[in-house]
TrEMBL record:
Gene3D superfamilies recorded: 3.30.70.270
GO molecular function: diguanylate cyclase activity
Enzyme class: transferase
Keyword tags: Coiled coil, Nucleotidyltransferase, Transferase
UniProt-recorded name of the protein: diguanylate cyclase
Keyword Coiled coil: yes
Its EC number(s): 2.7.7.65
UniProt cross-references to PROSITE patterns, sorted A to Z: GGDEF
Ranges of residues in domain GGDEF: 211-345
Coiled coil: 153-180
């Protein structure tokens, strides 16, 4: 109901100020649309020239130096410091320090101004609903209450927007946690549960699209001897290096996961048994192509691979594919290691 002793709030010259540093933290997007609706309600409700919801930065919507009526009105609202109580100036020409404001003394000759504070969840005044007119006018108790109701609508929108932000942030954290639960913490590939699940999904998709699917098991040869001779940190380094080289041999939509220990599973959707053999051979060569330096020791790593493909086993379940690939891997190990063996049906 009061002018709040504006002389204690306004700067003597430019009337600049306010608490815009608080306000830039409010989200844009949907909240902007809701605020615009509230401004339209204010125009119709009070029949004033302008209704502006300001968080101390209403001028930001206009180009620097713009002198349109909207830009001038926005700058006028921004120049009034945000207060904890309503500001009602029924005739700015005769009421307090606003009579000296350049937009009152000169064009556009603002006469009426009302501002209702907007509070955040901590009951801090962070903005205001502002009414501007170019003729002096009365502002009754009922008008003041309706203006307060408009500000409450803005506060509600801010809280809803903040809640939506919190929900989105929670969803993002949940997705990250879910991803972390599916990733091997040491080498960053999918873990056993995740790669097995991906195999099931890809098998179902490839089956529906009538495309082949291949599975490769890759096992680092003599890994236990590396751990025993050089320690587990050295073994971890070998796993990381091997995973990196295996990853470099597959396509972006293929999947690599640590199945157990030093054994990796590679899922190749759309790959025939011929492609699977070629990929496995490329992996074998990539791993053995470089010597790994572990302390003062140079290690030449090798891997054994077992492959299986649905164009050779069209009716196999994912569990059966895993069994066949594992059998092929054991055959590669028994055949002298550092080789690739492909699973074939018994009748072939």
């Amino acid at each position: 109901m009061t002018n709040l002793d504006l002389s204690s709030q306004l700067h003597t010259q430019g009337f600049g100020g306010g608490s815009s540093q608080l306000l830039s933290r409010f989200p844009a997007g949907e909240i902007d649309l809701q605020v615009q609706r509230i401004e339209r309600i204010g125009l119709r409700l009070f029949g004033v020239a302008s209704c502006i919801v300001s968080f101390g930065d209403a001028s930001a919507a206009f180009a620097i130096g713009e002198r349109s009526m909207g830009a001038i009105e926005a700058a006028f609202c921004d120049s009034i410091p945000i207060a904890n109580d309503p500001v009602i100036v029924m005739d700015a020409r005769v009421e307090g320090p606003l009579s000296k404001h350049r937009s009152v003394m000169g064009a556009p000759y603002i006469r009426f101004f009302a501002a209702q504070p907007i509070f955040n969840g901590d009951q801090q005044a962070v903005g205001s609903v502002n009414l501007i007119d170019y003729t002096a006018r009365d502002f009754e108790v009922e008008d003041r209450q309706m203006l307060a109701d408009l500000a409450k609508l803005v506060e509600l929108e801010l809280r809803v927007s903040k809640l939506n932000e919190s929900q989105l942030d929670l969803q993002k954290k949940n997705r990250n946690l879910r991803r972390e639960s599916m990733v091997d913490p040491l080498i960053g590939t999918w873990n056993r549960a995740a790669i097995t699940r991906l195999l099931t999904l890809e098998a179902d998709r490839c089956g529906k699209e009538q495309k082949p699917l291949s599975l490769v098991f890759v096992d680092i040869d003599s890994f236990k001897a590396i751990n025993d001779s050089h320690g587990h940190p050295a073994g971890d380094t070998v796993l990381l290096k091997a995973a990196s080289r295996l990853r470099s041999c597959i396509r972006p939509h293929d999947a690599l996961g640590r199945y157990e220990g030093e054994k990796f599973m590679v899922v190749l959707p759309g790959a025939s048994h011929i492609i699977a053999m070629a990929v496995a051979e490329r992996m074998r060569l990539a791993v053995m192509s470089q010597v790994e330096q572990i302390g003062n020791t140079a290690l030449k790593l090798t891997v054994s691979c077992g492959t299986v493909s649905t164009d050779r086993f069209p009716s196999a379940t994912t569990e059966e594919l895993i069994i066949q690939a594992d059998c092929a891997l054991r055959a590669a190990k028994q055949g002298g290691r550092n080789c690739v063996v492909q699973a074939v049906p018994p009748s072939t």
